[in-house]
């Protein structure tokens, strides 16, 4: 469970002010137009600011029990690449080695063929799958993934969303996403952010209306429900 209370952010032209936002166990999609504050929200939760990285202290029943990085895994929107093998990258931030978990992640993300390649040479989608394995190796209870579907082909978009949904049985997973249809198909809740404000807070995908989505993105959109999925159309196309 992650509860955010009285979170304030002030970049001058851009401000965010969140009174109260909670994410329980499950997969939670965060939607919003470019520049609405999705990445800033994740960075603020972690305690990152523009010129420093300062992990937030976490308190339980009045006592400090650690800092955010001990409880949260974070997959940023963009990550620097350097000369290190995919295998080393996957294990880089794990507190404990776990060979069984490692092997299962290699299978889940189909990484067998490039564990010994340096991450510099991987395609965008291959690197994204390596990053998913890396944060899964951390075995934290909360995972925040910023635009995880970016760079993934259709097969891996669904494969990774399925993996996130399975992990969300026992974890809190928050995913900033652009593909609203994919988000509504897989997520347990949808949160919408616009201009630094939460305009829909953790509602079930069934409750997201075409009007709400159109308002969020400032374009006319229609949502249609299929058997097990949602599709989103731009009205004027
Ligand atoms: N360190 C910063 N200093 C000043 N403005 C920033 C900084 N980080 C983000 N912003 C601004 O805050 C707004 C929200 O950015 P961001 O959270 O990255 O949006 P999103 O992830 O929803 O596309 C944007 O207008 C962006 O330019
Ligand atoms: Mg962003």
Distance between the termini: 40 Å
Specify the overall morphology: globular
What is the tally of helical segments?
7
Total beta strand runs: 12
Which range does the strand content fall in? 25-35%
Give the topology string: H per helix, E per strand. EEEHEEEHHHEHEHEEHEE
**Fourth-level CATH superfamily of the largest domain:** P-loop containing nucleotide triphosphate hydrolases
What compounds are bound to the protein? adenosine-5'-diphosphate, magnesium ion
Biggest sheet: strands, sense, closure? 6 strands, mixed
Q: Using only CA atoms, what is the Rg?
A: 18 Å
Q: How would you classify the quaternary structure?
A: single chain
What is the CATH top level name of the largest domain? Answer: Alpha Beta
Q: What is the average of the pLDDT values? A: 92
CATH topology of the largest domain: Rossmann fold
* Low-confidence parts: none
- CATH architecture term of the largest domain: 3-Layer(aba) Sandwich
Describe this structure in words.
- By secondary structure, this protein is of the alpha/beta class.
- It folds into two domains: 2-71 and 140-234, P-loop containing nucleotide triphosphate hydrolases (Rossmann fold); 81-138, no CATH class.
- The chain has seven helices and twelve strands.
- The strands form four sheets. The protein has a six-stranded mixed sheet with strand order 6-7-8-3-9-10, with helices on both faces. Strands 1-2 form a two-stranded antiparallel sheet. It has a two-stranded antiparallel ribbon with strand order 4-5.
- Strand 9 (189-194) and strand 10 (197-203) form a beta hairpin.
- The protein is globular, with a radius of gyration of 18 Å.
- The site of magnesium ion has 4 residues, from helix 1.
